[in-house]
Fold:
Amino acid sequence: MHPGTWRIRPPVQDIEVLETRGSIHLLCFAGKHEFWFPRMMTGSPELWSEYLVVFWPHRRNAHYYLRHGIQIDSADVVLDCGACEGFFTRLALDAGARKVICVEPSQLMVQCLHATFEAEIGEGRVVIVPAALSSLSGEAGFAADDRDAFSGHFQTDSLQRVKLTTIDQLCEGGDKPTLIKMDLEGSEYEALRGATSLCSTCHPKLAITTYHFAWDHAAISSLLCGLGYRNVPASAATLRGSPVPRPVMLYAW
Structure:
């Protein structure tokens, strides 16, 4: 979102600390959205950029989730895969979603999510699932940095262990998501492999990041077409440290 590249000016950074509670503090973005974060995370340009990719609907925001016909209405049950701080969860609630299920493996970010959405959890509009998504259930090593909420990733030799589950398992006997947002730092394909039953029968709307690896878009779009999706447009392109350009986002219905 570099303005020198786009020749536009994104909204000026506006992050304020409102309250501190132990190891977390409450940050207010643009004077209207409040989220709890680890105290070690400050109002950095990166954090402001992460906020803008969710809330700034500019046509040059290639990471924007609600595009190509992917919208939220009052009947939607939203599955926020890689909920992190809850930016997209708040966007979905503000858009009128009936319920949002947040899946997040980081213990500290789960604590922040419970603080941010305390009222909505009490009302039954938000459910927090402390787990990582994959194509199978079990557990895995996970590494996270309290100074960077967006850096969590699988790491085999990590002492921290997280529960692994699948989207199909999450949906057993409960609400079926009608819209799935997914940003899993490169684990999107495996998470979708764990959602083949839901996707092949219910075809929820999808907004998925495809920029982490060069092969993400090709593999994910092929999988979705095999599951019966007929519309799979992409958004923009990036190199991201590779000579092979690939789309930033994939949408499907």
